[in-house]
């Protein structure tokens, strides 16, 4: 064992992208990373050529964009399982399989061109599909119909006992349509973790919350500020086939919708209300649901298309007889959008090289580095490639709920998503900074690379809830997603922000997300080595990182560990 003792000052600064960065907040943290012998040699096995070889295969046209349920999906899974096998990882699942089948259902709602709402006095408003309203099916059935359902404004639609917050107050909301605000209350620093978005502020929580009230449907009042993205994203993400896990016995609304801000204002006005006044009333623990005096009907035909894919996972068993039962989980989703609409050049293959080819290559490289250690780490290393992340983070959610591995046995999840192909940076971004002690551990590791840690600038965008780490967090596993920041070494200030912005504009979720000769992979290598150091330190530690005091996932972790009963 080699002990790397570090006491450091971590500078936490928001990214200055568009708006000026606030002054740096200096926090002191002391973390001791214990690394296994042979760590440095193992770390040098992570090299650009290997990363490039994996991503070049996975993002090649032959893999057809890795769309769930496609031939390309099957080839991807075989490739990943083959790589794990050759590195000495054993199959994780029953019957000596690297694959865990994930049954999915594709739902395509045939939304009406116009959706109308009627006031008690007979006047009405109607909205144009895609431009003013969006709707998706809430149930996996070929037809969804609601007749003259009452519309009720329910504020944020949140029930959070730990915040002493309940927007429903026991009102009878059965079979009603709930109009709800996006985001969570954040006008005081102590309220729902202040500005930062918690899961209470995400659309998936809102719809589940409405379903628990027995509501027929839910409509979110969309604003760019409260969502963290513009209407265009709501529109693009919800047109066409939507994948879901096969429905269980959880409560479900019949439909879920969004209205633009202008549309929401008009809806409130139709019932004689002022939306801004309603929102003001919702900014209080005393808020009561407000029936708007408006009803609506809708009749949706739904194409229901069952399909299946699989998560891929292998395990490297740990060396400590007591601790090998526990595992550090490395993850990187393997799916992308497959073959779809052609772009300007006529290309129809959504290769997903950055999303998420480079991240898979990082997870494979870290897996290889662990396998090359002269002695295995004390805890086991689980390498996990979840399916169907792009449309709902479904594969990891299925795994988390499947009981294939008890949540208490997983001590940390390190997720790789997207990546940096523009060179080395002096900073590292942690999405959702402040949630767990993993931040301090990563800061200590980053310090060995002369890099500093920062959070993402747009804390309201809720990035922590938007990739596979969230599935692990929800079952209590301390989880982290980090990658290179924006301060590229040897580049002008602002250069990094420009690269990311141009990539989002020209390549994100488009056929042009392909492997390119211009890529500079030394930053990607450094990030993978950082992940290896963090994973190795946790795998060998006497005491593993926990959630921050009072974090939303802390209680779930304690229950999981207690339930394991070791
Ligand atoms: Zn992705």
Q: What are the defining features of this structure?
A:
single chain; 566 residues; alpha/beta; 17-stranded mixed β-sheet; two-stranded antiparallel ribbon; globular; disordered N terminus; binds zinc ion
Fold and architecture overview:
This protein has helices at 39-43, 48-58, 71-86, 203-212, 224-227, 231-238, 261-270, 275-282, 353-372, 394-402, 438-447, 469-474, 495-506, 522-540, 554-564, and strands at 2-12, 25-35, 90-91, 99-110, 114-119, 124-128, 133-137, 143-153, 159-160, 165-166, 177-181, 217-221, 242-245, 255-259, 290-316, 327-331, 338-339, 349-350, 380-385, 410-415, 427-430, 452-455, 479-484. The protein is of the alpha/beta class and 566 residues long. The strands form four sheets. The protein has a 17-stranded mixed sheet that branches. The protein binds zinc ion (ZN). Residues 333, 355-356, 389, 417 line the site of zinc ion.
């Amino acid at each position: 064992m080699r002990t790397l003792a570090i006491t450091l000052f971590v500078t936490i600064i928001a990214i200055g992208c568009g708006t000026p960065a606030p002054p740096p907040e200096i926090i002191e943290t002391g973390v001791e990373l214990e690394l296994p012998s042979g760590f440095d040699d193992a770390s040098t096995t992570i090299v650009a050529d290997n990363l490039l070889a994996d991503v070049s295969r996975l993002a090649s046209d032959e893999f057809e964009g890795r769309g769930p349920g496609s031939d390309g999906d099957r080839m991807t899974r075989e490739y990943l399982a083959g790589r794990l096998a050759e590195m000495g990882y054993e199959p994780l699942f029953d019957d000596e399989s690297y694959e865990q089948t994930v049954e999915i259902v594709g739902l395509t709602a045939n939304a009406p061109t116009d959706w109308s709402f009627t006031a008690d006095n007979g006047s009405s408003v109607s909205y144009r599909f895609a431009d003013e309203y969006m709707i998706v099916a809430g149930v996996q059935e070929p037809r969804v119909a609601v007749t003259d359902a009452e519309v009720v404004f329910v504020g944020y639609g949140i029930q959070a006992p730990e915040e002493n917050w309940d927007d429903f107050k026991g009102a009878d909301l059965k079979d009603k349509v709930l109009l709800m605000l996006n985001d969570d209350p954040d006008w005081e620093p102590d309220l729902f973790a202040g500005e930062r978005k918690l899961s209470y502020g995400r659309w998936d929580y809102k719809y589940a919350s409405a379903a628990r009230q027995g509501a027929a449907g839910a409509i979110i009042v969309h604003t760019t500020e409260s969502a963290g993205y513009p209407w265009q994203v709501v529109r693009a993400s919800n047109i066409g086939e939507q994948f879901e896990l096969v429905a269980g016995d959880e409560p479900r609304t019949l439909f879920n919708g969004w209205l633009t801000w202008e549309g929401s204002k008009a809806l409130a006005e139709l019932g004689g209300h002022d939306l801004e006044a309603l929102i003001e009333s919702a900014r209080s623990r005393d808020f009561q649901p407000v029936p708007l005096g408006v009803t609506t009907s809708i009749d949706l035909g739904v194409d229901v298309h069952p399909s299946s894919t699989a998560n891929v996972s292998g395990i490297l068993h740990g060396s400590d007889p007591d601790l090998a039962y526990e595992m550090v989980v490395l993850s990187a989703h393997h799916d992308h959008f497959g073959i779809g609409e052609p772009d300007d050049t006529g290309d129809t293959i959504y290769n997903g090289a950055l999303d998420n080819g480079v991240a898979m290559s990082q997870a494979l490289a870290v897996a290889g580095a662990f396998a090359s250690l002269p002695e295995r780490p004390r805890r086991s290393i689980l390498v996990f490639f979840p399916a169907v992340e792009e449309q709902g983070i479904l594969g990891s959610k299925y795994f988390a709920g499947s009981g294939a591995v008890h949540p208490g046995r997983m001590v940390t999840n390190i997720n790789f998503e997207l990546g940096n192909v523009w060179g080395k940076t002096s900073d590292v971004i942690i999405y959702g900074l402040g949630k767990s002690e993993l931040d301090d551990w990563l800061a200590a590791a980053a310090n060995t690379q002369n890099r500093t840690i920062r959070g993402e600038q747009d804390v309201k965008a809720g990035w922590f809830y938007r990739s596979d780490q969230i599935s692990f967090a929800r079952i209590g596993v301390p989880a982290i997603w980090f990658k290179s920041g924006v301060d590229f070494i040897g580049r002008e200030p602002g250069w990094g922000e420009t690269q990311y912005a141009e990539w989002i504009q020209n390549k994100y979720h488009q056929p042009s997300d392909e492997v390119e000769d211009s890529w500079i992979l030394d930053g990607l290598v450094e990030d993978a080595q950082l992940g290896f150091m963090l994973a190795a330190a946790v795998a060998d530690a006497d005491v593993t990182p926990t959630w921050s005091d009072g974090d939303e996932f802390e209680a779930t972790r304690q229950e999981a560990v207690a339930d394991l009963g070791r």
